[in-house]
Amino acid sequence: MDIESLFSVKGKVVLVTGGGRGVGEMIATGFVTNGAKVYISSRDVKACEETAKALTARGPGQCIAIPGDLSKYDECIRLAKEIEKREPVLNVLVNNSGATWGASLAEYPDSAFTKLLTLNVQRVFTLTQALMPLIEKGGKRDGCGRVINIGSINGVSVPAMETFAYSASKAALHQLTRHLAAFVDGSVTVNALALGPFRSKMMKSTLEAGEEVIAGGLPSKRIGNPSDVAAATLWLSGKGGEWITGTVIPIDGGSLLTGSKL
């Protein structure tokens, strides 16, 4: 029961969607730093390739970019086939790609629901479904078959902003997590992280407008650090997390305790 055996991801094969920047980059960094082979994919080709190069140079693990627009069904299938060509198993899939949309109730566009429910929920299912045979192989061969969905506290409590499609999509993602966990092979776990405020492109304008107020309203009195989300994914991916499935775990600095709204 030593730390190395409980939490090691050395040599594991990982895919992090939206891994070119923000929370996805934080997660990918945690895996690479601990010796995993990490594939990252996002629509931003430049960010994806630059991050992969920087993380590989940092090591000791490796990071490989396979850019793609994961809002599209065919791109999800292409990514899954590309991973299958390169790897005999996939140990960890982190579904992090996502988008948000804010507008007043009167002006909120129908297209926002189409865009966000497709990317934030439907394509998570598409990619997970396509990669599940590889993930099952990872679970049976290495004792490590994991799906980790990146949700949000906005899918648990009502946000202060008028981000209707986003909160609905994250609540749906949390339920999809539970539903998948009940039906996958016993060698695979499926969990979600309900994130609070982290420094990402999605949160950039909100934090610029009032980071001190947001942080001051949290019991922790700070915004999330990269290590906070990386540690949670490493825990779930190691042996120490193998008996945890179907859960939605808040990584939020305590914001759900205080009713803080973002």
From TrEMBL:
Domain of life assignment: Eukaryota
PROSITE patterns to which the protein is assigned, alphabetical: ADH_SHORT
Keyword Oxidoreductase: yes
InterPro entries: NAD(P)-bd_dom_sf, Sc_DH/Rdtase_CS, SDR_fam, Sec_Metab_Biosynth_SDR
Molecular function terms, GO-annotated: oxidoreductase activity
Record keywords: NADP, Oxidoreductase
Family: Belongs to the short-chain dehydrogenases/reductases (SDR) family.
Protein known as: Beta-ketoacyl reductase
Organism whose genome encodes this protein: Apiotrichum porosum
